[in-house]
Amino acid sequence: MADAASEKLEICISFIREQLKIHKQKCGNDVTEPFFLGMNGVQGIGKTYLVSSIARNFREANTATIVLSIDDFYLSNADQTRLATSHPDNPLVQHRGQPSTHDLDLATSTLASLRADLETSIPSYDKSAFDGKGDRVPQSQWVRVNEKKHQQVRLVILEGWCLGFRSLDNSSLRTAWEKAVEARVKGAGYLGRLGHNRLEDVRPLLLRLDNMGLIGISQLDALIHLDAEDLQYVYAWRLEQEATLRRERGRGMTDEEVKKFVDGYYPSYELFTEQLRAGVFEGRKGSQLRLVVGKDRNIKEVVHL
What we know:
- This protein is an alpha/beta fold.
- The protein is built from nine helices and ten strands.
- The chain has helices spanning 4-27, 47-60, 77-86, 104-115, 170-186, 199-202, 204-212, 233-249, 255-278; strands at 35-41, 65-69, 120-122, 125-126, 135-136, 143-145, 155-160, 222-228, 288-293, 299-304.
- α1 crosses α2 (47-60) and α8 crosses α9.
- The radius of gyration is 19 Å and the shape is globular.
- The model has no long low-confidence stretch (mean pLDDT 88).
C-alpha cells in the first residue's frame, strides 16, 4: 500500500494529466498558452512537498513546469512593517498572511508575463528572515524562466493557503461573525478566532479578497484543494513546520509566536473554507479536486467538483 504522500501524488498526477488533455483539446494541437494549476491547503498540510513532487514528475516527462507560491508575493518586510504600524489596532495585519499583505502589482505582472510566454523573473520570499517575520529575497537572486536557451513553461503551479477563497457579501459576513461571537460568549467549546475579532477589522478582508481575485480563480484552469478534516489541525502542523525551519536554518518563530501567527489566519479559514469545499468553478464541472486528510495527513476522502 502506498504511503500518504505517494497516494496523494498519484491521485493528483492523474487529475492533472486529464486536465491537460482537456486544455489541449480546447486550444488545439498547437497549444500556445501555459496551463495554470492552483493548489490550496492550510499551513503545514503538505502543499509544498506535494507541489514539488508534482513539478518533478512533469519535468521528468519533459513538460517545462514552474512553481509559484502566493507567499512569494508577500510585501517586503519594510512595507509590511509600515502596514502594521498604520493599522495598530487591527491584529489581522500585524504580520504577513492576510490578502492585504501581498504585493498585487508584482503578482499580476508576473502571472501576465508567464501567460504571454515572456522571459520572467520569479519572486522569492525568505520566511526565516527577521526572526521569522520574513522578507522578500533580493531580485538579483530570483530565478529566470522562458529564456531562449530553455523550454517555454507549459505548466504553472500556483499554491497558497487562501487561493480560491471568494468574498462574502456584507450580510453574510455579519451573520457569520455574530454566530462566532455568540459561540465564544456561550463558551460552548468555540475554538475559532473569528469571534475574538471586531467586525470592523474583519470586514476589510472582503475588499482584499476581491482584489486577490486578480491572482485567484480567474487565473486558474484547475484547482486542487488539500482539505483538513478538522481545521484545528493547522496549529499542530504549523508548529511542526516552524520547528523544522528552526532546526534547518537556526532561526524562526517560537511556539508562542506560531500560535499567535496562525490566529491571524484562522478567521479567514472560518469564513471562506465552506465555499471552497462546495466548488469554485461555475460551469466548469470536474476542474476541481478536493482531497480531505486527517491529522496524520492520510487521505480520508476524494471529491471531484
